[in-house]
Protein: Ribosomal RNA processing protein 1B
Amino acid sequence: MKKRPREPKPLLPFLASATGPALIKHLASCNTTVRSQSLRLLQSWLASESQQLSDSDIKKLWKGLFYCLWHADKTPNQLALINRLTNLFLSLQPSLSLEFFRGFLVTLRREWPGIDRLRLDKFYLLIRRFVKALFELMRLRKWDVDVLGEYLGVLENDGFLAEDKLQGNGVNYQVASVFLDELKGVGFPVRKEVVDVIFGPFFSVMMRSKDKILLGKVKSCLFDELVKLGKELLAKKRTGVDSDEKDADMLLGLVALRMGLSGRFYEVGSSTDCIQGNRKVVLALHEEFLKLEKDLESSGVEIGIPEYSDAGDCGDHDEVPQLIPIDYDASKSNEETRTQEGADNAFKKKNKKAKKGVDGDDKKRKKKKKRKNENGVSKDNSAAEENVDLNETVILNLQKQFEKVATEMGSESDEDSDFSDTPIVSKRKRTKGADVQQPGNLNTNWTGDGGDAARKVEKSAKKVRFAMKNNLVWKPQTPLPPESLRLPPSVTPRGSALKKGSPQGLL
Structure:
């Protein structure tokens, strides 16, 4: 079942009567429905507007769009709103779209310091998508050099090298970071005049920008990447590895190798307008690109420039699906064969289940037999263990009888006794180091040296030590001191010292 597309909600009464600039204030509403409907009305109004709007109207419009995205929560809603804004940019008239792009840059740079870290990501994404939409617009305009120069001139004069006092340098940093990535996604003609216009704002930054962070961003994210792609392309051509002519990395590698960027850097570095602090960076890039071009000449590899074809690069955008007529008779026969195959598959599955049931019964029987065999073996083992226990008890009884006979004989010493070889096991506490023979090893004691075993048993007996300091008897001195005199607790006698003498605590 295909889901039916949602029908748009009816317009709110106060929006139905509002037209044009009156809708801008509703873009910043806290109500999602109000924002969505006002944006829809603005899209239809701007798409049909042929006259050029004033700068103040464009700034008001973009301030409302800025806070419309500000209030958008959750990623799916933010993505949908950003896509609507980029589609609006692509659908505008040429003169209006240029002013729309200028208002985008100025508004973001003005409002950038007030964006908190939780909302920063969606505005980063807005910048990335607008840079991509700019290249898509250039593709639709067939990469006309004049039109391309107008839009990139706005990027240079109102963005990178703007003379106003706005503190939105983060917008310039983000544009420089994503510019080359988004250019890869759109096929462009590798021609010197087009390449000079595309990279023109960045050469101006290398010449006249005082922002060292922006200078580093342009160098690392743009020109260093071009050098890297040029080296990779040259290495592939030397080894004979084939590469796709429409590959974005190959196109940018061709720009680094064949578009004479080393000469352009030399012009920028030797210009009187170049800032002295930037000249060292510019001339270093000149050396890198010059070395790359010399390596291409010395290698003897010929790298051709592919011809640009708009249909080939962007065929996916304009592709129309082919409609194939349906043959109902053939479809019926196919359905009959499918049903027959389904019945055969069901029958095979039933047979497999029955076979599995038979195999399962056999496996259960085998498991039962194994369990019976294991139980029989375990019973035999338990019986053997019982026999072993009986043998040990008999030996213990014999030992006790020998001890009884020895005591009756009243032997004075173990050496004179007839049973001197018999070890006497004490029933009291045994020491850890005593080598007492286990009952199962009695045979070795009858034939071995019994005297040594007896001496070891005697040594294991508990010894009582007597010390004078623990058994002192304290006697009072004469004459006795007064009764009120008390001794300190440390001198008070304890234990057996109180057997004789005066009471505790008196001298």
User: Anything to note?
Assistant: Residues 160 and 172 are 6 Å apart (CA to CA).
